[in-house]
Design brief:
514 residues, 6-stranded antiparallel sheet, 36 strands, 13% helix, single chain, mainly beta
């Protein structure tokens, strides 16, 4: 049998293998180039996104620190249509835009437009690239709300910030980021006690007391002390809690921005709570940031108080008015019953078992001491603005009374826990405001019902070992100390009564690449 000629097969196979290897080489080269361009594009995208984030932060910084909402600077709320979202000015959305932005500014104050136009844009250097960013902010909502502790309502705004980061060159990249900047409104008296200090032991509880809660809106028309519930007696602090007792029982949670295990004295750093001797809480809620309570506007530098400073004279009510202006006798002098009208008073001391009746209104008092007697709220609300001045100057407190307390209720038999024909144990009836750094003593062997707003002050409750010595309401101070078995009964009805504007927060963060 004759065999076929196989010459040339090796050449064909060689050419075939060369072709396969060539295809593979081209594929690898293409893949390598694709990976290079992919990495390059990713780097450009990251650089553009960094630029856009810089724009968001720059715009937010301007709105938080360099911008004052109306009514201010000749601007008026009447310029705006507040019933729509976004807010309108001249029938168009209210917008602040930087130079080079894709939209135009529409804001009634030219100085604000000009400031934002230059501050909302910039250039970043990233390796060999230059990243340009532009921003614009759209006003989504605006309204005024009353803020506890101040005489002027706060203007609350919500802005949508849009920022674009742009890289140009061999390849272009554009990333757009949107974020919402807003200020929440929270209940002012949201805790049984809140200590504004960042220090260790800003809340210092010892003895056998703690917290409970009740709801004054559900009380019957009676003078009987409400029964406390073992929940919602929450406490909070920008620092930490130290509880030492047999035991201290906090029937609620502890809220704090503190994290970690070591004390550092800084907000957000260090131990959250030190519980000794069986003391307990119902858990810890970590705050995203410290809570700021603005001090009452009265009698602080630049506070713009609507009231004149009270006198610094010593005034005493010892069963009778003794000629004190604003004080009237109720019944025979032997009853030791007097009525004090709203108005200015100096360093006022109530003694001799006096039954002091108060009517609705504002009492501007330099200092107040209850050594022996009872406070009865006949109509509400009664508001004590405590100045606490040792000396004055230029219409403000030059120095603060120290070390004695600017408010001392330890000698009272009861305070705002009863009244003729009135419902007792309603803390909102008796409001105490103090902006200074002095000391307040809120109760001794008897009960007190009040709300106390003194975010710069040191506040002490001493139950003196008396189980009936209770504080009904809510306390805000720099340092809050409970000793001697004192117990705070938090009134849950306060969550719907008074409000404070919170810190600015960036929310609803989104981004897109073009």
């Amino acid at each position: 049998m004759k065999q076929a000629n196989e010459r040339g097969v090796a050449l064909i196979l060689t050419l075939f293998l060369v072709a396969v290897l060539s295809v593979m080489a081209v594929s690898l080269a293409f893949l390598s180039q694709s990976e290079t361009w992919s990495s390059f594009n990713y780097r450009l995208m990251v650089q553009a996104r960094d630029g856009a984030e810089a724009g968001v932060n720059k715009a937010a910084h301007f709105l938080v620190h360099s911008y004052t909402p109306p009514p201010a600077g000749g601007d008026s709320l009447s310029n705006y249509t507040l019933t729509s979202s976004p807010v309108k000015y001249n029938n168009s959305d209210v917008v602040l835009a930087s130079n080079g932005s894709s939209v135009s500014s529409n804001y009634p104050v030219s100085a604000v437009r000009g400031s934002f136009s230059t501050s909302g844009t910039g250039v970043l250097t990233a390796e060999n690239a230059r990243v340009r960013y532009t921003t614009y902010a759209t006003l989504l909502s605006m309204r005024q709300v009353p803020q506890y502790g101040t005489t002027t309502p706060a203007t609350i705004q919500s802005w949508r910030i849009t920022a674009e980061g742009i890289v140009t060159g061999v390849q272009n990249s554009l990333v757009q980021i949107t974020a919402k900047l807003e200020r929440p409104i929270r209940p002012t008296f949201n805790y049984a006690a809140f200590a504004t200090s960042c220090n260790d032991g800003a809340l210092d509880f010892s003895g056998s007391g703690g917290t409970m809660s009740y709801d004054s809106s559900t009380l019957a028309q009676t003078q009987t002390a409400p029964q406390g519930q073992a929940y919602s007696g929450n406490v909070g602090t920008n620092g930490s809690l130290v509880a030492t007792g047999n035991p201290v029982t906090i029937n609620g949670t502890l809220s704090t921005p503190r994290t970690g295990v070591s004390g550092g004295g800084e907000c957000g750093d260090g131990a959250q709570a030190t519980m000794i001797g069986g003391a307990s809480t119902q858990g810890i809620t970590e705050l995203p940031q410290q809570i700021i309570y603005p001090p009452p506007a009265c009698w602080t530098a630049g506070g713009g108080c609507a009231y004149a400073l009270p006198p610094l004279t010593v005034q005493t009510i010892n069963g009778t008015c003794s000629g004190l202006a604003g004080c009237t006798q109720i019944g025979a002098p032997g009853l030791k019953r007097v009525r004090l009208a709203p108005g200015p008073y100096g360093n006022l001391t109530i003694s001799g078992g006096t039954e002091l009746h108060l009517d609705a209104g504002t009492y501007n008092i330099n200092s107040f001491t209850l050594t022996s007697g009872t406070i009865v709220i006949d109509s509400e609300p009664v508001i004590f603005n405590i100045a606490g001045c040792a000396t004055t100057g230029a219409g403000v407190c030059a120095t603060t009374i120290s070390p004695q307390a600017v408010l001392d209720l330890t000698g009272g038999s009861s305070t705002n826990t009863h009244g003729p024909g009135n419902l007792g144990y309603v803390p909102a009836k008796f409001q105490v405001n103090y902006s200074g750094t002095g000391n307040l003593k809120l109760n001794g062997s008897a009960s007190v019902a009040a709300i106390v707003y003194a975010p710069n002050a040191n506040i002490t409750l001493n139950g003196l070992g008396n189980a009936s010595a209770r504080f009904y309401g809510s306390i805000i101070g720099q340092q809050v100390t409970l000793v001697g078995g004192a117990t705070i009964y938090y009134d849950r009805a306060l969550q719907n009564a008074f409000y404070t504007v919170g810190n600015y927060m960036l929310t609803s963060y989104n981004w897109r690449k073009f």
